Amino acid sequence: MHVITIGIDPHKSSHTAVAVDAAGHQLAQRRFVVNAGTVRQLMRWCEKWPERRFAVEGGKGLGRSLAQQLAAAGEHVVDVPSTLSARARLLATGGDRKTDEADALHVAQVALFRQDLRTVEPEDQSTILRLLTERHDDLVNERTRIINRLHAVLRGLLPGGAPTRLSAEKAAALMKDIRASPPTAAAATSLGISSPICDASTGRSGTTKRRCVTPWPPPAPR
């Protein structure tokens, strides 16, 4: 039985999949709305082709999450750079007209006739932890930037400015006693709201990192 290649054009809100045979002829196509069940729906749609492989455009970019989920499920997945699929579209149409179905078809055809594409391997915990750490650092830097801006605003509204170690709760208490023009008060309030949001996001990112390094399932009690 010939292997069926399934090209996928990924987007933030939807993924379009096109299945082609060994000659590159389109067999079927379907659009999937991105949600928690997207991969499950995609796998059900592909059950009719037990001999299959997936070609995901931008496996290191927009298509990374989908490519990783498929690879983790044991599927054969290759990464098709967007430059190659764009070149295939240009040669096929003679222009730059785009549709999601046509793009997915070109992704599959590129994978069919190129033997040098990168095979997507499931990421291990060290890679995931590195990504979570980078995200946590970004949130910490963003929180610091917001606090510094809030200090600058409060310095002009309060005698002596705000305390050095300013938490979201302290900032909210200080702003309750401020009497300022509407634009200035709005700016201070906006910064005060941003701070607890960053606090919460930073806390969630730390929790996620801890979960990543916690063995699963947890060891049974003795």
From TrEMBL:
Pfam families: DEDD_Tnp_IS110
Database matches in InterPro entries: NAD(P)-bd_dom_sf (IPR036291), Transp_IS110-like_N (IPR002525), Transpos_IS110 (IPR047650)
Domain Transposase IS110-like N-terminal residues, every copy: 6-159
One Gene Ontology molecular-function label: transposase activity
GO biological process: DNA transposition
Region annotation (Disordered) ranges: 199-222
Protein name: Transposase IS110-like N-terminal domain-containing protein
Native organism: Streptomyces antimycoticus
Lineage, top ranks: Bacteria, Bacillati, Actinomycetota, Actinomycetes, Kitasatosporales
